[in-house]
Specification:
The protein contains three helices and no strands. With 107 residues, the protein is mainly α.
């Protein structure tokens, strides 16, 4: 009788362990599905916000507002030279540093 009782106990414990693991997996799957839904919603919102930014940055929207404020296109350009400042291309090391800074800042 002892071995059957031990076997039955192990079988019942194993059965409940399998049920518990399935419940845990199913709960995790539901959480994952909810997170995927949230991600999809936020990606859609991101797309809408990008469109809104593009609309707000549009020159056809900004030009009339600038004209209302009295802004006009310049009639010409003028170069100002400062004493003691030389116009050089710079050292190759400095140019490499500037390129790395500009590429790191992104578009």
């Amino acid at each position: 009788m002892g071995p059957w009782l031990l076997f039955s106990t192990i079988a019942v414990v194993a059965f409940f362990a399998i049920i518990w693991s399935r419940i845990t997996l199913d709960r995790t799957a539901f959480e994952l599905q909810e997170l995927e839904g949230r991600i999809a919603a936020e990606q859609a919102r991101y797309g809408e916000l990008r469109l809104e930014v593009a609309r707000l940055e549009s020159p056809s929207r900004i030009a009339p507002l600038a004209e209302e404020l009295g802004m006009v296109f310049p009639s010409g350009t003028e170069t100002v030279a400062a004493k003691g400042v030389e116009r050089t291309a710079g050292s190759p090391r400095r140019l490499a540093e500037l390129r790395s800074i500009l590429s790191a800042s992104g578009p």
